[in-house]
Design a protein that fits this description.
The complex is a heterodimer of chains A (about 260) and B (about 110). By secondary structure, chain A is an alpha/beta fold. Chain A contains ten helices and ten strands. Chain A has a single domain (about 5-95, about 160-260), classed as P-loop containing nucleotide triphosphate hydrolases (Rossmann fold, 3-Layer(aba) Sandwich), CATH 3.40.50.300. Chain A has a six-stranded mixed β-sheet, with helices on both faces. A four-stranded antiparallel β-sheet of chain A has the order 2-1-4-5, with helices on one face. In chain B, strand 3 (about 45-55), helix 2 (about 60-75) and strand 4 form a beta-alpha-beta unit. The chains are: A alpha/beta (about 260), B alpha/beta (about 110).
Chain lengths: ~260, ~110
């Protein structure tokens, strides 16, 4: 493993309901850098993210964190790993019965000995980072989807995690707010030395923030490199994605017929 | 792990020197020692010397803000010395530059 890679994914395969969704996925996530995992909807990005955060155990293949096999972690080690990471899920995943400030305070109350006042200040600071300090006493149900997403990011940042995973941070956000979030991710990398992993299909955002891009198509890595390398890649699928060209939908007529009639030919 | 040492160069001036990692694991100790000293100092000057401390997360900014608030409430003055570039950037990321503007007095590390 190169010395600057914090996480090393090696030959990862993944299956969902008997169907293979990831095929020999191999790439590294460099320490203190922003890695963007990019690809069309349904290409396996979110499944890969679930493996990276230890929510889905690795099947064939490995994910090494600091050289240690995540798939072989005991429950205790997995708990320690989860304390090192912050995760923003697509929907924000907030507790609906708590205010935003209380939501953000939860991990600090559970995992630290910090005084209540320190926790309160930290929670409001994190809300301020995502532009929501005026809404600290609001309940999640009182906010728009985009605001809930930003609040989710504030909660992911509560513990100043060493590794931050964010799933589609810009979806549902207006361009100005989305640009602000991109800036924040870069500031976190610079200021706190965070290792950031962003899963997205937003091209503009990806090229603005990425130090390394991993592009996935139908569960396979089709290009891996810095933004210039990805732009310069001549692979047809990469160029199709970058140029936003519609997929020429090719069907397997036999399986289509089979699914229409719900019987084997 | 962080060590805190108190010195009083003059009756009007107390210094809390921190040595070690100032993070969410040690922030409660720094908070306790600092607030105790701030109460004792009253309207006099409290200096927190961070030359040998390394702030690595935002808990240190939150604690420094609490100390500043306590000192100001008592009519005293807080001085932060030996702040490194990273801590200054964390204060900036938290958009508290203006609040700490008159407090950070020494050259950055």
């Amino acid at each position: 493993m190169p010395p600057d890679d914090l996480i090393d994914v090696r030959g990862l395969k993944s299956f969902y309901r008997g169907r293979q969704v990831l095929f020999d996925v191999t790439f590294g996530i460099p320490r203190h850098r922003v890695t963007v995992i990019m690809g069309a909807s349904g290409c396996g990005k979110t499944t890969l993210l679930r493996h990276l955060i230890g929510l889905k155990r690795t099947g064939p293949g490995q994910i090494l964190v600091d050289g240690e096999d995540l798939g072989a972690f005991s429950e205790g080690l997995l708990k320690t790993y989860r304390r090192r990471i912050g995760v923003l899920f697509q929907g924000g995943a907030l507790f609906n019965s708590m205010s935003l400030r209380e939501n953000i305070a939860v991990p600090l109350k559970v995992h630290t000995k910090l005084a209540d006042e320190t926790i309160r200040i930290m929670a409001v600071m994190k809300l301020n980072m995502v532009g929501l300090s005026d809404f600290s006493e609001f309940m999640p149900s009182q906010l728009s989807g985009g605001m809930r997403k930003r609040a989710g990011l504030a909660r992911a940042l509560a513990m100043d995690p060493e590794i931050l995973f964010v799933d589609e941070p810009s979806s549902g956000l207006d361009p100005i707010t989305a640009a602000g979030l991109d800036r924040l991710l870069l500031d976190l990398r610079e200021t706190l030395g965070m290792t950031v992993v962003v899963v997205t299909h937003e091209l503009e955002s990806a090229f603005k923030i990425a130090d390394r891009i991993v592009m996935i198509d139908k569960g396979k890595v089709i290009v891996l490199g810095d933004p210039d390398a990805v732009r310069g890649c001549t692979d047809e699928r990469v160029q199709q994605f970058l140029n936003r060209e519609a997929d020429t939908h090719q069907i397997n007529i036999d399986s289509y017929y089979e699914s229409l009639l719900d019987k084997e030919l | 792990m962080i060590k805190a040492q108190i010195t009083c160069p003059s009756p009007e001036h107390a210094v809390l020197e921190l040595d070690g990692l100032f993070d969410r694991n040690s922030a409660h100790k720094v908070r306790r020692d600092s607030l105790k000293l701030a109460q004792k100092q009253g309207s006099r000057e409290l200096e927190i010397d961070l030359t040998h401390a390394r702030c690595i997360d935002t808990s240190c900014v939150a604690v420094l803000l609490e100390i500043l608030n306590t000192v100001r409430k008592q009519g005293g003055r807080l001085k932060l010395t030996g702040i490194d570039e990273n801590t200054a950037r964390m204060i900036s990321l938290s958009q508290l530059d203006e609040i700490f503007e008159d407090v950070i007095v020494a050259e950055k590390k």
